[in-house]
């Protein structure tokens, strides 16, 4: 990176650090009101936001497909939903100041572990403008300063959304630099952000595998993210067949494009002849395609053969990989080889098998007799999420307000000194 | 790094990952027994360990000072203490499987957040051989695989200690690769370890500022650490003078070389004329030197003047920087400028001032009417610590067994699918 990017970034991170300190001392009510103010501005400036979005759409390369264009497009309904989303974060319980643990030592010192903000968050996302509003709302609510970097194609929209957040903050007397935006689409600035170990406490990338993997590869700042959700549903031999059918159909087909969608079905060999033929028939009818190993093909010969990489592929589409396994250990070995540590599910009526499975995978989220599509902050009761993490450090699974906090220890004494 | 270092490291991390998976499925009793076994081996092989340590000492460069040589030296008493330390970790409560949160959603799904190991830990330390034994014990107890890298000067000692840990593990049928050691003093291997984002989940450096800063600068794997403990004790105008005197003397002089020692005394101007003269006299008598700002010099003219960098210096010695401030905000501003986010203390009888201070610094640990020397895992009741962290992500303050865990979500259903 050149000196000028580094200078721009230092200006941003210095302001962010200052804002974070000030936000951490603001009241819950101030932060909530700032969000309600930002939502009002989003609605009041709807036509300016639509104009900005129009500029982004006009500038879009003809090579971008319809799905990309759709993700970038704002409508009055989508802006209303964005404003409502910001308001929804305002009514969530304050994640700061929670006493996470409390004890007294024999010498009378009183210890408290108390939730505090993380500090400065770098949020890198793609073309969907509402992600910027959601992320800014969650960060403000949790007392964190945030530096937003949306997709280069959505810069005008992102700037309008940023402006609304800043107005909400200033109306409450909060530091406007609590939410900043990278001032240009310059990729080198993103590189500088990813390296800013002193200025940024955590980077949260949200988008496709390409974006997340690039961030993970280049960042020196710690990253909370998941690159892919290669989720498995395993039907154990003691499964209720009807329950298994419903779960697998839902886990794959409810919304095949979300990260919690099941990509691979594992079936115990004992139950596979009963489960697979009707299940494949039903899912085929619903438009699902398949990639099957030899043992599954032996049961349903019409199934197309899986290619070597298929079990390592996150389809994000109505395509299901199928493998027949011997038992729980066989399923765990398959998942150890191909899983991405996101969400893994077992369907069984056998509690021992379930516990063995739940304790045996690397999944951030493990389920027993439920659809992997439930891996979502809303379904967890978190109210909103900024992303889903599959790393081991700090937060795993859906990242909501609580996960955007750290803690400090407060020790209250009466003059104790150490012997 | 060359291809060969990378290949060596991949071998180590692959074995570590495998061991971590197997350890995460082992029983608490197995892990505790492995530690007791390792302690027995440490005692049984005491003479071999003393011989190995002798080799290290013979190889030591003449430039190393006595303090360095002392840290490296093992004696029968120190080996006994090391074995007892490993046994002490064995009797701590199991940090795994704790249910950190539990709730049920309206659709009947039961959620549990359960403590699981972090995975693979890279432990980088300096010359004190017992750090390797302590770290290995804490990692095994918490179900984590660890790759140890001690100081190049202590390689023979480290290998003997490693051997004892491995024997303890194998006696229990646990994977011996749960504890590994970098096979040579090759610095390039350390570089490879710091870059191994897929193979290592967290790096914990323990040693001087030079080591920690080098690790923080070079690592792409997340780091749990503190580079320095530039701790402040602030005496507020409403302090009990006698309590303040006792706390300051203890916070500075009990053990000036630990990271929780106070380096800078901040005093409210109103109380400074009453506090400083007798305090400086007493501490001078106890061998303490001083670096004072102009306002403190105006009260005690004999105090030597602070140089520009003095307030940014972690003395780790009987030297105290002194500054007079106007009030709590003045103290907070000083700490914001010079603090390292480690431990900050206020002495006051005024609860409002105390709360303002506790909520206003970036300290991982903040204290009211207590000596900063209490910042230590043992004093917190953690039983043992692998280090102290000042970052925002994952763990802050003393890092004990609990802090060496992550969590997963377990969701138990009865066939629920998402609508």
UniProtKB/TrEMBL annotation, chains A, B:
NCBIfam families: PRK00197.1 (NF001221), proA (TIGR00407). Its main location: cytoplasm. Residues 12-284 form the Aldehyde dehydrogenase domain. It holds the Pfam family Aldedh. This is Gamma-glutamyl phosphate reductase. Keywords: Amino-acid biosynthesis, Cytoplasm, NADP, Oxidoreductase, Proline biosynthesis. Catalyzes the NADPH-dependent reduction of L-glutamate 5-phosphate into L-glutamate 5-semialdehyde and phosphate. The product spontaneously undergoes cyclization to form 1-pyrroline-5-carboxylate. It comes from Saccharibacter floricola DSM 15669. It is found in: Cytoplasm. PROSITE patterns: PROA (PS01223). Belongs to the gamma-glutamyl phosphate reductase family. Pathway: Amino-acid biosynthesis; L-proline biosynthesis; L-glutamate 5-semialdehyde from L-glutamate: step 2/2. The gene is proA. The keyword GTP-binding does not apply.
């Amino acid at each position: 990176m050149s000196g000028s990017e580094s200078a721009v970034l230092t200006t941003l991170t210095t302001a962010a650090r200052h804002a974070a300190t000030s936000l951490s001392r603001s009241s819950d009510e101030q932060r909530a009101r700032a969000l309600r103010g930002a939502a009002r501005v989003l609605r009041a400036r709807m036509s300016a936001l639509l104009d900005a979005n129009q500029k982004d759409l006009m500038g879009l390369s003809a090579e971008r497909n319809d799905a990309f264009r759709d993700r970038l497009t704002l409508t009055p309904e989508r802006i209303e939903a964005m404003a409502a989303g910001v308001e929804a974060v305002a009514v969530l319980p304050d994640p700061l100041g929670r006493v996470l643990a409390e004890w007294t030592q024999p010498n009378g010192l009183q210890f408290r572990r108390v939730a505090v903000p993380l500090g400065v968050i770098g949020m890198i996302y793609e073309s969907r403008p509402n992600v910027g509003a959601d992320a800014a709302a969650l960060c403000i609510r949790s007392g964190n300063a945030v530096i937003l970097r949306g997709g280069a194609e959505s810069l005008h929209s992102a700037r309008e959304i940023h402006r609304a957040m800043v107005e909400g903050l200033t109306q409450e007397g909060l530091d406007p630099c609590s939410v900043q935006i990278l001032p240009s689409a310059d990729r080198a600035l993103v590189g500088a952000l990813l390296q800013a170990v002193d200025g940024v406490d955590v980077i949260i990338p949200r988008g496709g595998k390409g974006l997340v993997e690039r961030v993970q590869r280049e960042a020196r700042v710690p990253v909370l993210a998941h690159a892919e959700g290669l989720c498995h549903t395993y039907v154990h031999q003691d499964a209720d067949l009807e329950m298994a059918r419903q779960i697998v159909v839902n886990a794959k087909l409810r919304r095949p494009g979300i990260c919690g969608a099941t990509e691979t079905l594992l079936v115990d060999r004992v139950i596979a002849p009963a489960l697979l033929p009707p299940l494949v028939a039903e899912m085929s009818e619903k438009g699902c395609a398949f990639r099957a190993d030899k043992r599954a093909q032996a049961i349903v010969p019409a199934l197309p053969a899986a290619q070597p990489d298929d079990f390592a592929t996150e389809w994000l589409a109505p395509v299901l990989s199928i493998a027949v396994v011997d038992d729980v250990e066989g399923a765990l070995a398959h998942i150890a080889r191909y899983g991405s540590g996101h969400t893994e599910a077992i369907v069984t009526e056998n509690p021992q098998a379930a516990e063995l499975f739940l304790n045996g995978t690397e999944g951030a989220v493990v389920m027993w007799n439920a659809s992997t599509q439930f891996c979502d902050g809303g379904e967890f009761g978190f109210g909103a999420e900024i992303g889903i993490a599959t790393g081991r450090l700090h937060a795993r699974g859906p990242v909501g307000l609580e996960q955007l906090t750290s803690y400090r220890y407060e020790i209250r004494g009466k003059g104790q000194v150490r012997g």
